[in-house]
Amino acid sequence: MKKKMISFLILHYKNIIQTVECVESILKNIKYKNYQIVIVDNGSNDNTGEELKRKYKKIKNICIIINKENLGFAKGNNIGFKFIKDNLKTDFIVMINSDTVIYQNNFCEKLIEIYNKYKFDVCGIDILLPNGIHSNPTIPSVFNVKDIKKTIKIMKKKIDICSLNLGIPYEVIDRFLKKMKKKRKINYNNIISNCIEEKVQLHGAALIFSRTYINKYDGLYNGTFLYFEEVSLRYIAERDNLKLMYIPDLKIIHKESQSTKFIIKDWKKRHIFYYKNVINSATNLLNYINTSTSNVWKEES
């Protein structure tokens, strides 16, 4: 029986050190024979895409795609997703951030075993931060259009606060901004030994799409440039009755937010960049929901 094809999809933007570390972790640790790596250079404009091409030109199962411009997270990944769908006849697309590291040598075998048991459409995995904290899954705070509107309002207030020159240390402002949003806490110790199917939101740093999802879609919802992808995915899953699962047996290390910090080193600019992109993505999703024939998430009460 032919082994199932697994495709790793990595979106690269400027930080070649972390992208190489991600790729090398796959090459070093994955023992499964039938896999490919697709790297999408998302308009880096610093020649690092070409550097990656030169570095991996002799490795047959690595393909590098160069985008002429930065299309954002969803559209950038979707270029690779569509390429894999049309050319590689893959069974799974493992979409991972470039600032992640895979260390399980049985990652692919475990993935196939889990799929054979649960038949998921989209799978989220145990994402470990360098400090040992588990950041997946999360309990969502957005359930309908009312929550999306509230998120947009909060982000606008945060931009106003960040824009003020108050002479207050940024760490103090950061703590205040975090308190503006009521955080729902989840006891990871109670769930990491179980498969969670409902009322969880999968972290976008590592998403696995099965053939059933690949056949239906050409990637993620493309109305976002950066941020809010997880919310959009959950909306589409609820609207289309897709099976989203969190699988703790698959693990990855995530050096969280390293990409944005590498590109935007100034605290104020980085936070305003985040808030503005959340507003843009949330607004687009809101319009997308309102124009849908489905009533999912349209209830505001």
Report on this structure:
This protein has 301 residues and is an alpha/beta fold. It folds into two domains: 6-139 and 185-257, Spore Coat Polysaccharide Biosynthesis Protein SpsA, Chain A (Alpha-Beta Complex), CATH 3.90.550; 142-183 and 264-301, no CATH class. 42% of the residues lie in helices and 17% in strands. It has ten helices and eight strands. The chain has helices at residues 16-29, 48-55, 72-87, 107-118, 145-163, 170-179, 211-216, 229-240, 258-263, 267-290, and strands spanning 6-12, 35-42, 62-67, 92-97, 100-101, 122-128, 206-210, 244-254. Strands 3-2-1-4-7-6-8-5 form an eight-stranded mixed β-sheet, with helices on both faces. Helix 1 (16-29) links the parallel strand 1 (6-12) and strand 2. Helix 5 (145-163) packs antiparallel against helix 10. The longest helix has 24 residues, at 267-290. The radius of gyration is 19 Å and the shape is globular. The N and C termini lie far apart (52 Å).
Topology:
Layout: E1 6-12, H1 16-29, E2 35-42, H2 48-55, E3 62-67, H3 72-87, E4 92-97, E5 100-101, H4 107-118, E6 122-128, H5 145-163, H6 170-179, E7 206-210, H7 211-216, H8 229-240, E8 244-254, H9 258-263, H10 267-290
